[in-house]
Amino acid sequence: MPRPYRLGERTAQMGATRERIIEAAIEISTELGVSRMTMRQVAQRADVAPGTLRNHFRSREDLDIAMVERLTDEAPLPELSIFDAARTIEERLGRLIRATGSFFDKSARLQQMWHRERMVTGAWAEAGAAYGARWQELVRLALGPLADDPDAVAVIRGILDPAFFANLRSGARTTDEVSALVTALISPWFARRSAEQGAP
Q1: Separation between Cα atoms, residue 133 and residue 138, nearest integer Å
Q2: Which of 5, 22, 117, 135 has CB atoms 3.0–4.6 Å from 33's, for a disulfide?
Q3: Which residues contact 113 (CB under 8 A, 6 or more apart)?
């Protein structure tokens, strides 16, 4: 007796295949770089026929868009609301640093890809511009009246570097412990700077 056709099973199978393709593309891009990844490699890694790959992603651009969506969903940017009710620059910096540490935890794959190769075209460039604009706004809100102070901006940008956080994790410090340590390190300097400029 023929097996009854089940639309739900077919949809689930197609969804699983799509997910496998996206994951294969991310793995290869992490290993080789985005520009060196080929559709043939993706089909082989995902264990699908080239025609199946084309059914899901008609072009390389479509696949890039799906990869960007996956990685940005994994690592959403901090919301500007993290500063709500923060009255002092120390409070604002503490919240920004904690949010940054959390973002680094979630964005490990994206960071690996970025270190392998700077993605500066297509969907990658658009996502990078959006990330850059959000971080710039977060830094400005955290610094408040010091947002136009080049020294203050340079210090906070250096502190928010992934490598800086990674170095402080030695000894198996947690994200919260690293964030607390960084906040304690920079708060006196920013407090003095704020006092010198009459900023709250």
Answers
A1: 9
A2: 117
A3: 26, 29, 30, 33, 34, 71, 119
Nearest Cα to 158, choosing from 185, 180, 137?
Answer: 185
Q: Name the nearest CA neighbour of 174 among 185, 165, 164, 183.
A: 165
Contact 183/90 with Cβ under 8 angstroms? yes
Burial 58-70 (b: 16+ CB within 10 A, else e): eeeeebbbbbbeb
Q: Residues 29, 19: contact at Cβ < 8 Å?
A: no
| Cα–Cα distance for residue pair 66/137, rounded to 1 Å | 26
Q: Residue 193 corresponds to which tokens in the numbers above?
A: 């700077």
Q: How many residues does the structure list for the chain?
A: 200
Tens place of pLDDT per residue across the chain (200 aa): 455 556 667 777 888 999 999 999 999 999 998 989 999 999 999 999 999 999 999 999 999 999 999 999 999 999 999 999 998 999 999 999 999 999 999 998 888 888 887 777 889 999 989 999 999 999 999 999 999 999 999 999 999 998 898 888 877 889 999 999 999 999 999 999 988 877 66
Give the pair of three-digit tokens for residue 102.
């959390």
